[in-house]
Structure formats: structure tokens, C-alpha cells
Amino acid sequence: xxxxxxxxxxxxxxxxxxxxxxxxxxxxxxxxxxxxxxxxxxxxxxxxxxxxxxxxxxxxxxxxxxxxxxxxxxxxxxxxxxxxxxxxxxxxxxxxxxxxxxxxxxxxxxxxxxxxxxxxxxxxxxxxxxxxxxxxxxxxxxxxxxxxxxxxxxxxxxxxxxxxxxxxxxxxxxxxxxxxxxxxxxxxxxxxxxxxxxxxxxxxxxxxxxxxxxxxxxxxxxxxxxxxxxxxxxxxxxxxxxxxxxxxxxxxxxxxxxxxxxxxxxxxxxxxxxxxxxxxxxxxxxxxxxxxxxxxxxxxxxxxxxxxxxxxxxxxxxxxxxxxxxxxxxxxxxxxxxxxxxxxxxxxxxxxxxxxxxxxxxxxxxxxxxxxxxxxxxxxxxxxxxxxxxxxxxxxxxxxxxxxxxxxxxxxxxxxxxxxxxxxxxxxxxxxxxxxxxxxxxxxxxxxxxxxxxxxxxxxxxxxxxxxxxxxxxxxxxxxxxxxxxxxxxxxxxxxxxxxxxxxxxxxxxxxxxxxxxxxxxxxxxxxxxxxxxxxxxxxxxxxxxxxxxxxxxxxxxxxxxxxxxxxxxxxxxxxxxxxxxxxxxxxxxxxxxxxxxxxxxxxxxxxxxxxxxxxxxxxxxxxxxxxxxxxxxxxxxxxxxxxxxxxxxxxxxxxxxxxxxxxxxx
Length: 667
Fold this sequence. Notes:
The protein is α/β, with parallel strands linked by helices. About 35% of the residues lie in helices and about 15% in strands. The chain folds into 3 domains: about 30-310, SGNH hydrolase (Rossmann fold); about 320-420, no CATH class; about 435-660, 3-Layer(aba) Sandwich (Rossmann fold), CATH 3.40.50.
């Protein structure tokens, strides 16, 4: 009997060892089989977490943080390194959460950005995705909870068959879409999620209600997250819930139900929920190919909102604000239903909210009746009975994520923003930086101009540009040329004469056409503003097109300088990237060409693109700042142009943002 028991135990032990050997062989026999796959990027993300011992933000989520987080922006704004574990919700929230335990240290911040099925889904794991994602990185299996091992053992032979048949991957669902250094998605998404309503069944809808129509959290989810909270805090780290970005049009429950979930999570689990979910409800022009996937523009806005959340709750340090108050005039917004929209600066007092029609007639709106201000978070939203135009009625006809411009008055596409935009005058406490002098780049202008200004003599400034320079879609007065003149007159107590040679729809060829007129006028300073119309088209980024543009601008600069005219080159912003003629690469290349000319000729380059990008992290530019939804800025948008130009006139070195009414601070 003893021999039999010994034989039986030996047989079982050998069988177990043989099975383990088979399992081990299946997993590691071929290395890197799934290295080209999307799911295998989890290995890179895991290694980044594993090897980052600096203070860090660990983000746990699915693909909403793969297609929706600008890690460089988050690091720059918070001072923390970022370990973004977001990749695929199909792994299961449990898997991402367990992986995060690999390296949580004192002072780290753990963010739970789960997609909206977390409240009833901490019981399952996606064996196929996890095994193909981990591939031969067998050490990662230590993060699979023991009570789930049987599921993976049962899947092992199916995994072996899949591994042998796998043929590789490419595109935005592949490793090539990510940076191997930091796990950041680098695949450009310059399109809108325009086909949602034609494919609702495919894309799905988002609700936080359970099968009984209530907001609830399952016992399993609650218990797991309570344990996770303790685990994180025992290691001296902090943990917060944050909202994932979602397509607003996909929400099938009441928006306020998301706020109920926030309250319930904090009440039952106790992890601070630092986001307002409504701020993360994005329109189709900020989303890409799934109801929780941002496009390239939406990614930056989502990240900026997340930074706000972290600063507001005190998780990261906020910029020191002074007691000095400044008025921001005419900041433009569009509002959707009752969703909140952020201000560029957190308002101390809102003085006026109003709309201006095409005839210049002003409509005033009333706080409490038409709009509600959240002064703590710095947002404005419509009331349910508001008379403020609802931007959800704004029409754009997309085809495959792009729109074609149609100028027919009977059927404009896209519809103008002007009938929907509101303007807000408000006071805010300025940062310490706004009390300091702005950069002094006056060395790029001649001593003749500098001496005239400092001696109180009048000067003349001319502008030659396209529709933006001409003030298209503005009242004709609120354009950057006039803002520059007004500032110089106020700051130096001089007279500034202006002449605008700009014409709608024109490109750099206008410089040749107007050259003799400009030379005859002989302004002290000429602003050259071309590129927006010049760069458009499928071949906009071609070397031939860029060289031609650069040569023409450079030759014109030489002629004007030879005639004793100082020149400033004015860049241009990223126009609506979903316009079918827009070439995002060309936008960057043409601005770079202008900068190259400025450097070689020792003249000033106003980097408008940079400023719009910074503001665009906070405000959707095409909606809030462009009057035509494409590229013509509102009067407030022209202030961004002005902000990029005025430092060239800081001759006395004493210009400060606080003293320049139209100067927009965006740091």
C-alpha cells in the first residue's frame, strides 16, 4: 500500500511537472510572436512602471488613456513622471489594477480612470488578450490573482494554436503606433468620429445604470477597490478616481446619473473622485474611433482637464496666484446642453455674459436664469431653460471623419459658430508671472523705430495678409493690427497709424501685388501674415511647395528691408484638422519655414501656432476660438495673435501683462 501511495504521488508530481513544462514551453518556445501587436504594448508600459522610481503618476484604465492621454503634457504640468497602464479594457480592470502594484512608492499618485463598467466588473479577466499581450514575458503572470489561474490553464492550448497562427499587426492598433520610450501613442488621429449615429449598435452606448435602472456598485467591486485603496495608502501613495473621456452623443442615461455614481463611489468606497464627469463628455469632433477614444485634439484637452483636477484637489502643486485682479474681456465659448465648459482663467467674478449678432446687436444673459458659474472649478454651463444658443444644434456634415467646405449660402458647411458663441467678461486673480515684464524682443526691430517710439514720435504699422489679417468674421475693429496699435499708443503715449493691405482668400502672391503700394507708404514696421491659405492641399507638405513658399516670403522680406522697412513675420495656427484640405504636417513645416527665414534675416517671428496650441489644451479652438469653425479667429482669438507679436515692441522693457488689456496669459 505504501509503495502504491508513493507511486501515485510520484506520478502526480511528474504529471504536474510535465504539464508545467508544457505550459512553460508553449509560452516561451517562440519569443516575440506578438511583438507587433497592440496588446503587447502592455509589456512596455509595465517595464516603464517597473523601472520608474521617481515620483510618478500611475494611471490605471483601458484604451481611453491609450487613445486619450498626452503624457508629456501631464508630466510638464505636474512635475511627475507618468506610468500610463491604459491600453485595453478587454484585459479587465482587475488586470491593470494588479499590474500597478508592481512599483507603487511613497509620494506616488495612483489614478483610477476606468471606463464606465468598473462598478460591476472586477470579477473577470480577458485570458486571450492577457496571454497574447504578456506573450513570453512570463514574470508578468505573477500579477494574475491565484483564484484566476485555472482560467488561464484552461486556455493554454487555445493560446498555443493562436500563437502559431498569428500573422502580425499594423496601424493604430499595433505596436508601431506607440513610442517604445514612454508608451505614448504617437499615431495621429486627425479626424472626427462622424459615423457614430450610423453605427450605434457597433460603437455602443454608455450608461451608469444597472439592470434595474439604478446607480449601484457591486459588492465585488466595492471590496476590491477598498482593498486597493488600503494597499496604495499603506505604501505612502495617494489614490483618486478620475473620469474617462467619453463621446457625449453615446450617453444613454441622464447626465446627472454620472454625478450620482461619483457620490456613491465616495460614500461606499471612500476613494476621492476628483473629476466632474460632465467635463469629460466630448463631442464627435474631439473623438476618433470608439466612444472612449479621443482624437489628437481631444487628447490634449482631456489631459489638461485632468491636470486641473489634480491641482484642484491638491494632489499636485498649483501656480501661486496674486491678489491682483485683471479683467478678461470677451473670451468666447460655445455651450452644449448643460455641460460645463472651462474658462481660460478661473474667474473671481463674472461681470457679463452676452452674445453679439452679425449686425452688432448685443444680447445679455442672466446668471442663474441662462447660465451657472462654478467658481471653484472655473466653469460655465447653460441652465436647462437657458436662452443661450445650444451648440448641439450646430451642423457639420462629415464624410469619413472629414468635412468639405461648402460656401453656398443656402447650405453652408460647416455652419458658422458666430450664431452660437457667447462672450464673457470676467475678473480673475492673476499669477505672479503676469506681474512680471514680458520678454523683450525689440532687438529685432531697428534703432530708428525704437528711437521714434521712445522719443514720443508717431510711427506707422502696415499689415499684409489673408482673411485673418483682413479681420474676416470679426467686427472689423477687434483684429490684431489694431490691438498692437492700441497697446503702443497706451503704453508709450504716441500716435500709431495703421494700414491694412490684407484681402480675404489670398496667399503670399498678394505681397508681390501690393509691394509697390507698401513701399510707397513706407511703414516703419510691416507685419507679413501668410501661410494659412498657402499650405492647404494634399501636396501642401511637399518639398517643392514649401521651398516655393519660403523663397517667395524671403525675397519679399529682402525687398522691404532694402527699402528701410522693418518686417515681422506672423505665423498661423492649426486650423480645423477635420477639414479635408488641411494638412497638419504642412502647418508645422510652413511655420518652421517662417521661423527659419526670421532667424536668417534677424527679424522677429510671432509664433502664433505655439500660443494657439497652448490655449488649445484648454479650449477647443475650432469651437470656442474660431468664428467660422475653420480658421478665422474671433476678436478674442485675435488677441492671441497680438500676444505673440507685442513683445517685439517692448522697447523700454517694462511691458507687463497686467498693464496690457488685450494680452492673454496662458501659462
